[in-house]
Amino acid sequence: MKVLPTYPLTIPVLAKDNADPSTGLEYGTNIGDAGFILKLSDGAVISSKWKAKSFFKGPLNGDAKNPKVLHTPIPAHWFAPDFDDSSWQAANEYTAARVKADVDFSSYDFSSYDFTGANFIWSEDLDLDNTVIFRYTAPKPASFTKTWNADGGIDITNIVSEANLPTLTAPNLFSVNRNGLLPAI
C-alpha cells in the first residue's frame, strides 16, 4: 500500500498492553510492561517527539495483591488532525531491554525488519499504563513532491473491472474526517 500524504500529516495510534481491564494485571498476577516501536518505509521513526497520554492505568501503586485500576474516558475525535493534544506529555523512549517483551529484543534478529534508529516509546509509566494514545504531526519534508493529482473522494467503483478481478459488489467510497469514517458524498 502506498500512502499519499498531505501535510502536515497527523499520525494517531491507540496502543494497548495485554492487561486485564479490571485488575491491570497480565497473565493472572503479573505487572506488565509495554512498548511501541515503528519505522515507516521512508525512514521516519517514532521518538520522544510524539505525544503520549494514558487512558488506563493499573494496578494502581503497583499493588498486585489488591489491584485497582483507573480508566479515563478516551476523548472523541482523538484521531482528528485538529484534536488539541497540547497538554499531553512527550512520549518516553525505552530500550528493548527495558521493555522486557516475551521475545528478548536485545538479541532478536531484526534483519528482516529494519528498526534502525527507532526506539520503543510509551507513556511515563511503562509498567502500569496499559492503554496509551500516541499522536504525532509530521511536517512537510523539504524534499517532498506531490506526485498525484487527486485528493480524497476518488471514485473506485470500476476498479474491479479495470483490474480484471472477479466481479464483486462495488466497494463503498468513504472519507475520513474529525467525525470518523463516513460515506463519501
Protein architecture, described:
This protein is mainly beta and 185 residues long. The chain folds into 2 domains: 1-141, no CATH class; 151-185, no CATH class. The chain contains 2 helices and 11 strands. The radius of gyration is 20 Å and the shape is globular. Mean pLDDT is 80; it is low at 165-176.
Task: Report the average pLDDT across residues.
Answer: 80
Head-to-tail CA distance between termini: 24 Å
Number of strands: 11
Helix content: under 10%
Number of helical stretches of at least 4 residues:
2
Largest sheet: 5 strands, antiparallel
Show unreliable segments: 165-176
Short recap of the structure:
By secondary structure, this protein is mainly beta. The protein is built from 2 helices and 11 strands.
Layout of secondary structure:
Layout: E1 9-16, E2 25-26, E3 30-31, E4 51-57, E5 70-71, E6 89-90, E7 92-94, H1 96-99, E8 120-122, E9 129-138, H2 159-162, E10 174-177, E11 180-183
Antiparallel strand pairs: 1-9, 2-3, 4-5, 4-6, 4-9, 7-8, 10-11
Q: Any descriptors?
A:
185 residues, mainly beta, 2 domains, 5-stranded antiparallel β-sheet, 2 helices, 4% helix
